Amino acid sequence: MTRYIDIHDVQKLLRKTGVAPFIETLATYIRDDYLRWHDFDKSARVANHSQDGVIELMPVSDDRLYGFKYVNGHPINTRRNLLTVMAFSVLADVQTGYPLLLSEFTLMTALRTAATSALAARMQARPDSRVMALIGNGAQSEFQALAFHAMLGIREIRLFDVDPAATAKLVRNLSHVPDLRLTCTSSAREAVRGADIVTTVTADKANATILTPDMIEAGMHLNAVGGDCPGKTELHADIVTNARVMVEFEPQTRIEGEIQHLPADSPVIHFWQVLAGDVAGRETAEQVTVFDSVGFALEDFSTLRYLYDLARDAGIGRVIDLIPAPVNCKDLYQLVAPAGPSAVVRAA
What we know:
Elements: E1 2-5, H1 7-17, H2 19-34, E2 41-42, E3 46-49, E4 54-61, E5 65-73, E6 87-93, E7 99-104, H3 106-124, E8 131-135, H4 141-152, E9 156-160, H5 164-174, E10 181-184, H6 188-192, E11 197-200, E12 207-211, E13 221-224, E14 233-235, H7 237-241, E15 244-247, H8 250-256, E16 269-270, H9 271-275, E17 289-292, H10 297-314, E18 318-320
Parallel strand pairs: 1-7, 8-9, 8-11, 9-10, 11-13, 12-14, 13-17, 15-16, 15-17
Antiparallel strand pairs: 1-18, 2-4, 3-4, 4-5, 5-6, 6-7
């Protein structure tokens, strides 16, 4: 039997827990799984690209559970008032292959991306960081803002988007959050000036230059979220070359991340090693750091684990007959056999 969690279940759940507390707890699941890095069978996601977007499958497993996510990325969708990113996920029992959970993952992807961003920033940003620039105020932006406010104590977020309506939407959605100042700016340059952390979460499928080297100040931490497939970046290459760059899963990030245009031997540090305390995320207060975030399947796996625990403990979702359950496991045909008297099998 498979438990099914749809968008309505997720809405009820988040209204009960609150978005920020959900992100904070999810971050602990993500951290716990990254600390078990060597327990997982890992691979880069399988991507099918088209002119306007990409559809991907993201699998990962340990010795008990297997998870995968179906997700797309179609920036052109906003012209049709469709979501840029949509997803669903499955968690399965490794021993039997039976699916345990089928869940909506569009909202979950935004939540896990925000949780991962803030968790990474804890490892790389200066501890006294209180001001963040948020470049790109679309569907992911509120989740990023709430995560950094809750997990890092960010008190001011300086906003910019080429679409003023997107910024107005973000201000409207987060105007109720206490102790969070939202400042609208007229350019990315204005937003970045004086910021401790800069989060870029733009959507164009292009090698864009959202940030240039002259905009970067000593000690900044850059959370580069929007560049997540071949031919889609946000930072000038010189920024990445001169910064301390942290990646989730290097074989995937070399293809999809900000480092895709750098030499294959360009130095990076690994998220799991930083979380484990084996490598420093930041070496000096003046160093510029970059989290080259492309999204890795392990973060979805952690989210599935969290949802499965919630479903079990709180009865979220409903059980569905996704997989056949014939009386005789060797007789699948019985499920479609025409009704009628049983045939008699005679010995020769």
